[in-house]
Write the structure tokens for this entry.
Amino acid sequence: MTGKQRLSASVDAELLHAAQAAVDEGRATSISAWVNDALRLKAEHDRRMQALDSFLATYEAEHGVITEVEIDQAVRRARSRATVVRSAPAKTARSHRGVA
């Protein structure tokens, strides 16, 4: 489908405020553009989740259901191979009562 279609929708007030803030700050050209972008992101997310569901169903049909133990093992392996990209929080001097 090409072109635009008019839409009337009721949204939570805080979302409308967020959309207006995005326009006011120059992060969106209009509330319509902001909503269009949000709908596009949601549609892309839904497509990815459907693809993941399909992949998992195919995998489990061939190899059996993935168990909690297998998930735990995979998490441990991934964490052991992960590269930390955040530095440790800076240590701050703490003042104690009565000590300047």
